[in-house]
Amino acid sequence: MSKTQVATCINGDTHEFLCDTHQTLLDVLRHELDLTGSKEGCATGDCGACSVMLDDRLVCACLVLGVEVDGKEIETIEGMSSGSGLHAIQQKFIDLAALQCGICTPGVLVATKALLTKNKNPSEEEVRFWLAGNLCRCTGYDKIVRAVLEVAADMRNA
Asked: Most exposed among 30, 53, 119, 133, judged by the fewest C-beta atoms under 10 Å?
């Protein structure tokens, strides 16, 4: 089976790679580019653990083919922090213990950043609706929702 050459921008850096036409973006990120932050939870787009931004749109990387990202911009969980400092969203999740095992956390964080980019003052209902595509079996969603609402307020006041 022949491989296709793909060039894309991931977290601000240009990447070129070869992939099979059936490889998902998640497989490429994890196995070809060693960006293992995005997790595979279901491989059907139901859990959100592999959420990434693709041209400023929140997508499940398990539902996108690697060959489809040629010329596109991708932001993964690895691109969320800068240097050794955590993003305010990541720090708030730690501060409020809004995470447990870590499988869903990268996708929830990416989805939260996408929400707060579009809506700087979401209501609790909007947060719950936005994060409905991210499943977590370890925590209740209350700590996650509280973290999102608090970091939104912090970011507005900064």
From this structure: 119
Tokens 């929140």: give the residue: 58
Residue with tokens 């690895």: 78
CATH number at residue 64: 3.10.20.30
Q: State the pTM of this model.
A: 0.95
pLDDT tens across 105-152, in order?
999 999 999 999 999 999 999 999 999 999 988 877 999 999 999 999
Domain boundary among 79, 100, 126: 79
Q: Which of 79, 108, 132 is the last residue of a domain?
A: 79
CATH code for the domain in which residue 149 is found: 1.10.150.120
Residue 129: CA atoms inside 13 Å, Cβ hemisphere, count?
6
Q: Which of 139, 127, 114, 107 is nearest to 41 (CA)?
A: 107
Q: Which two tokens stand for residue 3?
A: 């491989």
Place of tokens 């240009």: 14
Q: How far apart are CA 8 and CA 68, in angstroms?
A: 10
Q: Pairing between strand 3-10 and 73-75?
A: parallel
